Amino acid sequence: MKITTNAYRIAATALAVVASPLTAEEEAASPLSSAVSQLESIPGKFSLNTRLRYEEFEKPGTDTGGTSIRARYGYTTPSFNGFTAMVEGETLSRIGDDADELPGLDNAGDGTDLNQLWVQYKDADLGSAKLGRQIYVLDDQRFVGHVGWRQNIQTFDAFTGAVTAIDNLTLKAFYFDGVERVNANSDQLDSIGLNLTYKFAPSAVLTAFYYDIENEDAAAFDNTTVGARYVGSTDAAGLGFKYALSYASQSDVTNGDEGDYYAADLSTAVSGVTLGLGIEVLEEGFRTPLATVHKFNGFADKFAKPSLSGTIGDGLEDVYVYAGYKIPVGNGLTTKVIYHDFSPESGSGKGGDEIDLVAAYKLNKYTKAVAKYGDYSADSGAAGSFEDDQRMFSFELNFIY
After folding, report:
1. Residues 218-238 pLDDT 10s
2. How many CA atoms are closer than 13 Å to the CA of 158, on its beta-carbon side?
3. Angle at 92 between CA 91 and CA 95, to 5 degrees
4. CA distances (Å), 200 to each of 204, 346, 350, 374, in order?
């Protein structure tokens, strides 16, 4: 079912109303705030997440661009003796473009679909359990994520739970029966996972995990992964440092590959500027089929698809540095620049590098504008997953209530 003309008008009007900066007094007196107040008087919680996006994508043989609008709209019931339920729909449509003109993985999913439908039980002392189609993420989303960057978000048909009965210890578990992917495909799964987190201190968290992923529709995604992640902070030389260390070992994939994963990130802030560096290594065959892959290895998504199925020849080594600064203009313009140096993890092949830029500005309480640019340049003589240049640019307005 395509988005209707009236829905277009409603979305466009809402974006126009909320996209202009307002003072606190003007926000309180605006028609939108009045409507929100009326909604908030109704038991439960209504939600609306609308994104208007223009994007361009370029690689050899492909040079596309276009505009799309996506709206997610839902309702969550009040708690009844610990039980809540939620239903959410999603409508995605192109604006003035042929269905084949939008770039990359967002070139799919036109129409209206059920995005979430779940029931949950939560106990403040013991934990929670949720059954149904749901958004689900773990840790930094390197292994299980919702791919929130895409217009068509990733959701799971799942039973998920968390046990919090022991102070500072959280055990999360999942069973996935299916995944609704960002490219509008639905895969049948038979997958389980455990994720155990212990907080030694507010600034020291250790996580161990086990994920057994079986995809009945795409065996190339199958894997068993065991790993750990440590996130912490410390002070040195008068500066505060944040760091994250990750390791995982993967086996039992369909073609018999076995591989390891390593990652490290270190950052600090100097005079309001965040500076950081890191490394991420995926050995040959290592795959992350349920991850938010856009979050890793560059905005241009050069390695997004091959990292899902472990088809990056000779593996991937990504060494990166970044700097971020909130420019004191209006409500503050948040900016970040990232430089990646990519190379094969093994062998003597050539790689490439990439420069990424992102800027975000919060126009008012509900609306944020975001611009993103990624430019991957292949080294001379690069082959396989590393060959050919690739670029992306996007600008979007997000309205979230």
Report:
1. 888 999 999 999 999 999 888
2. 25
3. 130
4. 5, 36, 42, 37
CA distance 254 to 220: 6
144 burial type by CB count under 10 A (0-12 exposed, 13-18 middle, 19+ buried): buried
Q: 5-400 adopts what CATH topology?
A: Porin (2.40.160)
Lookup: tokens for 57? 């994508």
Residue 1 pLDDT: 32
Q: What's the Cα-to-Cα distance from 185 to each of 1, 103, 105, 155, rounded to whole Å?
A: 17, 17, 11, 11
Q: Sign of torsion, CA 164 166 167 171?
A: negative
**CA dist 123 → 185, 294, 389 (Å):** 35, 34, 51
Q: How far apart are CA 303 and CA 13, in angstroms?
A: 37
- Which stretches of the chain score pLDDT less than 70? 1-37, 39, 97-109, 253-256
Indicate the pTM of the whole model. Answer: 0.88
Any idea where the domains of the chain sit in the sequence? 5-400
Do the beta carbons of residue 284 and residue 257 sit within 8 Å?
yes
Residue 29's H or E segment, with its range, is helix 24-29
